[in-house]
Amino acid sequence: MKPKAKFVTCGYCHASLAIHHTGSSYSTELIEDLKETTSALVKDVALIKHNAALDRLDEQWERWRLQTLGTNKHGRQITQPPNPVVSIFGFGFVFVFALVWTGMAARMFAPMALFGMVFLVMAVVGLFRSFSKTNEYHAKRQRYMQERQSLVEQIQNGD
Fold this sequence. Notes:
By secondary structure, the chain is mainly alpha-helical. Helix content is 69%, strand content 10%. Strand 1 and strand 2 (16-22) form a beta hairpin.
């Protein structure tokens, strides 16, 4: 056997062996055992990668969600997107107020009616902004949940 040899075949049982050099001693190990260990390590590394990808996805979603929803006037984190029913009621209140204001202002001092028009425009813009933010949130949440489910299935299947 050559001094630098790393692999040999047993002359008796024809098993493939890996040679380990440690100082002045030599030892051998069945290559099949090494393959099993390597295979197990590969599966473990793949599982760690999938779990890390899942954790990264969860962290990205949470960061985006908190940034998008923002905080209320007391500095507390908003945890849910705007409720469409509340948005419609808010829009209705501002819209009615703006109509009343515009009507009263037009009778008293016509240029003040422009402020009522500004209120109307702000109400409509606010309603559309609220709906678009809610739709964006739900679309991104659905994408996040699909990606998350895919990663969980990969972890469960051991891919």
